[in-house]
Each structure stands twice: as structure tokens, then as C-alpha cells.
Design goal:
Blueprint (H helix, E strand, L loop, with lengths): L3 E12 L2 E6 L11 H8 L3 H10 L10 E5 L8 E6 L4 E2 L3 H13 L9 E9 L2 E10 L2 E8 L4 E11 L3 E9 L3 E6 L12 H15 L3 H4 L9 E9 L7 E9 L3 E2 L5 H13 L9 E4 L5 E9 L7 E7 L1 E12 L12
Parallel strand pairs: 2-3, 4-6, 11-12, 13-15
Antiparallel strand pairs: 1-2, 1-18, 3-4, 4-5, 6-7, 7-8, 8-17, 9-10, 10-11, 12-13, 13-14, 15-16, 16-17
């Protein structure tokens, strides 16, 4: 009997319903001095094969998300992370940052008091982020991550789609580039019953922006194209702040079950720029399954683009631990996806 080619230990979490599979130890090295360099090198070779193994059925599914724990860029962070999904490796992942913060404390990798807050500093391809883990009675009560600076890229970018007509979208960077538009503008509502239409609209918006001149004008080398399309709608709310529901269609048609961590930061950047969300006031952001994140501007940074430091808070829970294997005799060893 041949030995397994790989045995991979994983810790599965969810944040507001969106899965995140953590791989704390890799069976190989991914070269590079930074998370950004390691991401570039991970796109080919064994790291990409391992991504496929863990995303694809029967070990995963079309909506799977996860991350590899890698060394930090320097001693200023606890560790680094490479985020992946069914299409490849993303530059940012807010819900994954929340899950990693909770996992780091629960596993003992980062020590935390039974009561109080502990910062877990993580180097990711888009920069350095912090997951602030709140402990109550020895349990993780909440995780609030401080994202890389977010900023508005463009407003009212017009595109033409085959099925939804002419649409105008706003673009914002928050570790990845997001297109944002009211769901009603595409004749949609953010409900599970509209999921197929939402996915189709997300595909068409992304395709409409793929070769748009506005992307060629960007000086930020991290902008690789539109990662996600966010359809949003208002919710009844009284008092300070805002309440909205959204759905983020990202990568190759994946649908975020959470309100989207980095996508929420992009929404805050746009709302702040429009004067709709003053610094410090909360955006209560709900997902297509009615799970919730809360977000606010906590700082502003100087520079050519400027940018807002957005804090996004929510909860992350473990859902399982396991060991996945790849057997040399398995003709379907790398798995498959049906869509």
C-alpha cells in the first residue's frame, strides 16, 4: 500500500457564515520575503495544488475559502497569511482575518488574558492588518480587525451588461478592488431567492470592468482588477450611523455568506467620501443570510491617496478540525468542482 502523498492538518472556522479553512503548517516552503512575494510564488507549483485539493470537492466546495499560515514579513507581526478561494489567491480577506485572530488566541499561538483585548498582527499580501480579539470569561467574544487603508478609486463608472443594461458603479480599494452599486439599479433585491440573478449580475459587472480604461489609470500596483462586486440596499434605521444589506459576488462567481470583511471596508470608504457616514459612526452591515458586521472609520492616513483605517467587527467560531490526505492511487485525488 502506498503512503499518502500529503497529510494536511486544518482548522475550519466561519465568520458570519462564511467558511475559512486554516492550514497552520505547510508540507513545503513558499519562497519570498513578504506575504506579497509569497502570494506571487504560490500561484504555481505545490501551493496552488494544495489550494485546489482543499477547495475542490470532495474535501471542499465551490464556496470554500481558506488560508495558509506563513512566516511574517518581519518581527512586527505574529505571522503571515495567504488567502485562497476556488479561483486562486486573493490579496485580502476580512472574514479570514477575523477567523485567524480567533484561531491564534484559541490555539495559544498568541497569548491572551481571560478578560480584555489582545492584538493579533498579521502580514497579508495587501499589507499589515490587526485582529483585535476581545475575551470575556476566557472565551473569544468578538474580533475587530483594522484593515489596510481604504480609499475611493472612482465614481459613476459606466458599463454595459448583456442582461442588466447600462449600470454605474463606484470603485473602492480596501486591500482588494470592489465595485459597488445599489441592487435596485440592476433590478435586484438582496435575498437568497435572487441568488442566481445576483451571481449573473456580478459576473457581468466584473466582465464589463475587465478592460476598462479606469483601471489602466491607477498608479497603485496592487490593483489587479476588480475582485468583488457588491450589491447593496438600505435598511430601516433610526439614530446615528447607517444600516445596509449587501451581497458580495467575488472571484469566479463565489457568493460571500458574510457581509464581507474587506468589502465592508470598501463600503465605508465610499459612504465616508459621500458624507453619509461621519468618522466614528457605525455602518451596521448585513449579509444575504442576515448575519452582521459593524464597521467604522478609526483613523485617516496621509499620502498621495490618503485613506481611511476602517475597523470591522464581528464574530468567528470554530466548526471543526481535520486531517486531509492525498493518496497516490486516487484518480480523483485533486478533486473537482461542478460549477
Amino acid at each position: 500500500m502506498k503512503a499518502a502523498l500529503w497529510e494536511i492538518e486544518t482548522f475550519d472556522y466561519h465568520a458570519a457564515g462564511e467558511p475559512f479553512r486554516i492550514v497552520p503548517t505547510l508540507p513545503f516552503l513558499i519562497p519570498g520575503n513578504t506575504a506579497a512575494e509569497r502570494r506571487e510564488n504560490a500561484m504555481a507549483g505545490d501551493a496552488n495544488k494544495l489550494r485546489q485539493l482543499l477547495v475542490n470537492e470532495p474535501r471542499g466546495h465551490a464556496e470554500m475559502y481558506g488560508g495558509f499560515v506563513v512566516p511574517p514579513n518581519d518581527a512586527g507581526a505574529h505571522f503571515g497569511a495567504l488567502f485562497w478561494h476556488r479561483e486562486g489567491f486573493s490579496t485580502a480577506c476580512g472574514h479570514g482575518t477575523m477567523a485567524l485572530g480567533a484561531w491564534a488566541v484559541r490555539s495559544g499561538l498568541v497569548r491572551a488574558p481571560d478578560d480584555g483585548e489582545t492584538d493579533v498582527v498579521i502580514d497579508v499580501p495587501s499589507g499589515r492588518v490587526t485582529a483585535r480579539v476581545s475575551m470575556v470569561g476566557g472565551k473569544v467574544a468578538q474580533v475587530a480587525f483594522h484593515n489596510v487603508p481604504s480609499y475611493v478609486v472612482a465614481r459613476d463608472v459606466e458599463i454595459k451588461t448583456p442582461d442588466f443594461g447600462h449600470l454605474r458603479v463606484d470603485l473602492a480599494w480596501s486591500g482588494a478592488l470592489y465595485a459597488s452599486l445599489p441592487a435596485a439599479a440592476a433590478g435586484l433585491e438582496v435575498t437568497p431567492s435572487n441568488l442566481a440573478k445576483v451571481v449573473a449580475a456580478g459576473h457581468q459587472v466584473r466582465a464589463g470592468l475587465a478592460n476598462h480604461a479606469i483601471l489602466d489609470e491607477q498608479a497603485d500596483s496592487r490593483i489587479e482588477g476588480v475582485f468583488g462586486t457588491i450589491f447593496h440596499e438600505p435598511m430601516a434605521h433610526s439614530g446615528a450611523g447607517l444600516r445596509q444589506r449587501n451581497v458580495n459576488v467575488f472571484a469566479d462567481g463565489q457568493v460571500d455568506r458574510s457581509p464581507s470583511g474587506s468589502g465592508t471596508a470598501a463600503r465605508v470608504a465610499l459612504l465616508s467620501d459621500a458624507g453619509q457616514l461621519p468618522d466614528g459612526e457605525l455602518l451596521e452591515h448585513y449579509s444575504i443570510i442576515d448575519s452582521r458586521f459593524a464597521a467604522r472609520v478609526v483613523d485617516r492616513v496621509a499620502g498621495p491617496r490618503g485613506g481611511l483605517v476602517v475597523e470591522v467587527s464581528g464574530r468567528a467560531f470554530p466548526v471543526g478540525e481535520g486531517k486531509f490526505t492525498l493518496d497516490a492511487d486516487d484518480e480523483l485525488g485533486m478533486g473537482f468542482l461542478l460549477r
